Amino acid sequence: MVVMLVIEIINTREVMRKRIGPLGDRLIGRVLDHEAEVEKAVIQELETAFKSFGIEANILSVEGVELMGNRLEVPLKLREQRQVIP
Asked: Model confidence over 8-37: pLDDT tens digits?
């Protein structure tokens, strides 16, 4: 059995505001990608925790996934599509 976690972080801007203070707040969204920075920090913390518990895992960062109520929407970017009709 495989266990999978999906984590949606919904307050990345506020987290970065607390980390960089009021002067850096102007950089958020212009120079600083708050979502990417928080994502990196969370992945690093997960990796550290997993190692300490002896957990083997693949941590994936996936763009474009949305949580819609109790459903996970995963858009597919198709490189090629063909319809075959005999």
From this structure: 888 988 888 888 876 666 666 677 787 888
b/e map of 10-45 (b: 16 or more CB within 10 Å)?
eebeebbeeebeeeeeeebeeeeebeebbeeebeee
* CA distances to 7, 24, 48 from 61, in Å: 10, 26, 17
Parse the chain into domains and list their residue ranges. Answer: 12-61
- In this structure, are residues 25 and 15 in contact, taking their beta carbons and an 8 Å threshold? no
* CB proximity list for 1: less than 8 A, separation 6 or greater: none
What is the pTM (predicted TM-score) of this model?
A: 0.72
